């Protein structure tokens, strides 16, 4: 049993609380990605769980055992928690095998079989075992760091932005190898990142941390499609926010009358549409007509800025279309919205902060 549970955890440095009565559960054998902006407290959270920082209040449980709480303090080395940092921090004077064996308990340090098994687990070949870290690519070094962390069969693996120093291609390959290795080892894991795509693709659950609290913790598809408020929606991807009026499961906005998914407030609302929900067709065949103002081409897809024909204020609107045949500026197109949209009450976010008043495309 290696579930992690935080209840009412407050922690910080000096007087200022970085984490403010935080609750979080990571189920046994699953991975949760903690997504937050710079300085939101992601590393502080990992320090509290690993035992490098004492919480001011609340309890931390790892594997059903309280490791921090009123009158309880288990030191880091007795928590069964492994920590992989941004830079793997391998020992430069030891070989790959030596680095991995360092993570094994003393009597097993000479067991080459276990080292080779761990290399295979992280997707590296046995011929790398005798190289020094400076003879490896950045992605290979991170995989060795992961193998070293998994060597003592930890109950919990904490990953602190372990892919952020890698370039795009290596990053994806290393991320996939890490996800596979974690699944195969059965470890519970917590990944800290500020990369939305990484959080959504890597983890079983995504936890959004802002202002010292978790705003939403749920499966990737749920936090993306059903964000709790407009701020979370914008934090977790591209979002088109529009003013609207909601009633009876429908909302009126400058994209027309659209069905609302999830909770349906009534009255003045902020409408959230993902740009990929806005599809372009031949002019006259969509729900609305528009003129293409600008196109940003990314290869696999393109972002198209549109001027809606019925919009006297000329607020541009963003659509995301597949990159096969993107339109060109000046084209006239039909515009439709696929699926339901979200509607949030105007005025306050779920966290109690004010919503932006202006429309954003
Ligand atoms: N040792 C420290 N002493 C004092 N303040 C600290 C210390 N470490 C972090 N902080 C402050 O605590 C806040 C949260 O820091 P933390 O490192 O947890 O954020 P983060 O979300 O991991 O950020 P990043 O994504 O930039 O690494 C920041 O305001 C930071 O300046």
From TrEMBL:
GO MF annotation terms: ABC-type ferric iron transporter activity; ABC-type quaternary ammonium compound transporting activity; ATP binding; ATP hydrolysis activity
Pfam families named in the record: ABC_tran (PF00005), TOBE_2 (PF08402)
Cross-referenced SUPFAM superfamilies: MOP-like, P-loop containing nucleoside triphosphate hydrolases
InterPro entries membership: AAA+_ATPase, ABC_SmlMolc_Importer, ABC_transporter-like_ATP-bd, ABC_transporter-like_CS, ABC_transpr_FbpC, Mo/tungstate-bd_C_term_dom, P-loop_NTPase, Transp-assoc_OB_typ2
Keywords per UniProt: ATP-binding, Cell membrane, Ion transport, Iron, Iron transport, Membrane, Nucleotide-binding, Transport
Enzyme class (EC, first level): translocase
E.C. number(s) listed in UniProt: 7.6.2.9
SMART domains registered for this protein in UniProt: AAA (SM00382)
Domain ABC transporter: 4-236
Keyword Cytoplasm (UniProt): no
Keyword Chloroplast in record: no
Any GO CC annotation of this UniProt entry: ATP-binding cassette (ABC) transporter complex
Official protein name in the record: ABC-type quaternary amine transporter
Organism: Raineyella antarctica
């Amino acid at each position: 049993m290696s579930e992690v549970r935080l209840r009412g955890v407050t922690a910080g440095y000096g007087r200022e609380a970085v984490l403010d009565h935080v609750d979080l559960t990571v189920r046994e054998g699953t991975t949760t990605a903690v997504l937050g902006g710079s300085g939101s407290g992601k590393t502080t959270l990992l320090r509290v769980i690993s035992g490098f920082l004492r919480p001011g209040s609340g309890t931390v449980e790892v594997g059903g055992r309280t490791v921090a709480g009123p009158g309880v303090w288990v030191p880091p080395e007795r928590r069964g928690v492994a920590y992989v940092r941004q830079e793997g921090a391998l020992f430069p004077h030891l070989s790959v095998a030596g680095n991995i064996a360092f993570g094994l308990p003393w009597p097993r340090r000479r067991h080459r079989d276990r080292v080779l098994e761990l290399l295979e687990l992280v997707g590296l070949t046995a011929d790398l075992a005798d190289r020094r870290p400076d003879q490896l690519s950045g992605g290979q070094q991170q995989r060795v760091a992961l193998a070293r962390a998994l060597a003592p069969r930890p109950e919990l693996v904490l990953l602190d932005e372990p892919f952020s120093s890698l370039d795009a291609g290596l990053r994806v390959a290393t991320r996939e190898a890490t996800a596979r290795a974690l699944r195969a080892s059965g470890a519970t894991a917590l990944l800290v990142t500020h990369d939305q795509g990484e959080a959504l693709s890597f983890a079983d659950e995504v936890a959004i941390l802002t202002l010292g609290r978790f705003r939403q913790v749920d499966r990737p598809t749920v936090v993306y499609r059903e964000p709790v408020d407009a701020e979370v929606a914008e934090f977790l991807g591209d979002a088109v926010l529009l003013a609207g009026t909601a009633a009876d499961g429908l909302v009126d906005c400058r994209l027309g009358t659209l069905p609302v998914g999830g909770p349906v407030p009534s009255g003045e609302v902020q409408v959230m549409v993902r740009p990929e929900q806005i599809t372009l067709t031949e002019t006259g065949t969509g729900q609305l007509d528009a003129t293409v103002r600008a196109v940003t081409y990314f290869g696999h897809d393109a972002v198209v800025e549109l001027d809606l024909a019925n919009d006297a204020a000329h607020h541009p609107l963003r659509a995301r279309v597949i990159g096969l045949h993107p339109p060109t500026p000046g084209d006239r197109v039909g515009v439709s919205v696929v699926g339901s949209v979200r509607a949030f009450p105007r005025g306050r976010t779920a966290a109690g902060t004010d919503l932006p008043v202006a429309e954003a495309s």
